[in-house]
Design brief:
The protein is built from 32 helices and 12 strands. The chain has a two-stranded antiparallel ribbon. The protein has a two-stranded antiparallel ribbon with strand order 3-12. It has a two-stranded antiparallel ribbon with strand order 4-5. Strand 10 and strand 11 form a beta hairpin. The radius of gyration is 28 Å and the shape is globular. The two termini are 51 Å apart.
Amino acid sequence: MATTILSPQLYSQVGIMGKRRPKSHLDREPESPTFKRLRAPVAVAWVSACVIAVSVAAATTADDEFPSAATIQVDSLRREAKDAPSPAAFVEIVQPFFERHCYDCHSGEGAEAGYDLAAAVSQDDIVRDPRRWRRVQTMIATGGMPPPDMPRPAPEERDEVARWLAETIDAAVCSAPQPPARVTARRLNRLQYVNSVRDLIGVELDVDLLPPDDVGYGFDSVGDVLSMPPLLFEKFLGAAEKAAAACPLPEAVKNGVLNGDALTDVLADLMSRAFRRPVRPDEKARLNRLVVQAEKELGTSEGAYRTGIVAILSSPHFLFRVEPDPEGIPADTVRPLNDFELATRLSYFLWNSVPDGELMELAGQNRLRANLRRQIDRMLADPKARSFAHDFAEQWLQLRNLDHFQPDPARFPGVDDSLKSAMRREAGLLFETILRERLPAVRLLDADFTFVNRRLAEHYGLPGDFDETFQRVSLKDSHRGGVITLAGVLAVTSVPTRTSPVKRGKWIMETILGTPPADPPPGVPLLPDDTEPNVTGTLRERTEKHRQDPNCAVCHQVMDPLGFALEHFDAVGRRRDQEGGLPIDASGELPDGRSFRDADDLKRLLVGTSSAEFLACLTEKLMIYALGRGPADSDHCWIRQFVSSSDPEQVPIRDVIVAIVESDAFQKTVTGGRAAESVE
């Protein structure tokens, strides 16, 4: 049964009609004596009406609907955009290749995995289904097909067919102008909320006041999964009340000098920063009615001020980032963001927080675009950029999975929360340093330094005196370096009792190369664990036996060599030379003929021959994080152009960020928009 102490007349005075607050919430023990009075539903009327004032449809989108837009091979990435390849080449080169190497398994009604390549009789058939043929192109380019037990094409023949397919698909998708996809109106995630509250009123809230956010495309900033059910709004309202109770008071409010219109003026300035735009006259008038009524009911300027804070921090104009279409513009019209919208995108990308005074001033003068690079550099140099660096790195590298990683304590003692925290911190500091020092992005793969505290140094077996603070240390001659050999990454790609070359290989494919493997077919048995009875041989021997199953071989011939390169690191990331008393063999060969001896050799190979794929993958991940949506066709085309015009071994992360911010995808939107789609 809902309850309220406000009369309908008061609702009318405040100018707000909204749902009433549940009695159970009103009756909770307030955070402080002040809030015994601040919980008067004057603020409740405001925030409840705000919740229903903005309608945000947040339908969850499955990650696998749109496979990665970074599945672009080196040859394709390095070529300039050009007209579609000759249709005759399909009949002269591609179709004969399929006949020799593919039709035995991929033709007719019983075609494996449903891929009937014989059904394609012309270039037009490729163009009609680019998403499906992108997958075929990727399998051929990486050597995943034909399978190892079939006659293998010569590398130059394979590359020619893969290049023709890539160029045909790219021409079909990118030849016409690609409008940017519209970004879903999205709620602030919990990190953005607490950072914004800190920068608005100087109160540090515990992020755990709010529940963890859902994840889409690997990140919790994606609008499609950031819903607002009633119970979550209750959490946000409670956080707003806690922040208002702890908010330092302006001296004039503390001394009771301000009231009525003057108090409204103070709050309106805060409201403008919170809403990330100028406050409209009707909004200020409504705020004034709220302040006057709150002061009347609570009897103090302090109470009215804190009530206004609760209202602002619970408003949908603060909780949601909305880019409303201007009136009179037809649907499906590409329009530039206004400067306040651009400032908001920029600040939540690089700071996970509201725009500061300088950004707001430039936006108000319509001068932000003219000063964009200067602002990007200023923001990246600010300590607030650490939030972006650490949050992005943690999510990109999947290190939040450490929360659920529980290794066998008998085999791996001492892996506690402090060590897991140090692992996450190490990754964030590495990314932050490579960003701030403008090192090439590929140094993320082979950096010869890292950051450790005492706990992590002991785990790594590093000599020296360490304390609880993190220190930069050299990794020369240590067989470590780069994100692939971080203890946190090695742990989340293991199972509780042993390493998992399959998980590690899959992680490299999807996180470093942007070529995630297909899901395993149903009914495939798991690899026997070495704790089971009658299990013999090394992990490599058991895995090789497992992948003799033709259903497994196609993906495992790529994943397994990548994963076995890391076998000198155990399930919690410690260096080792033996497994079960037997020497470790970390060598491998990829289906395309590239080979390596160990993790050091693999890193050199990735930097030397896969830097374009890595740059494309990293750029795509940063775009998802920045835009709060999955990859679209236009993103794929833009990434291809960006990487092909760059030197992938020299591009610093800062330049990737600048390119993203200056892109149409970041600076423009589409009215009445269309959902983001990708053929990748």
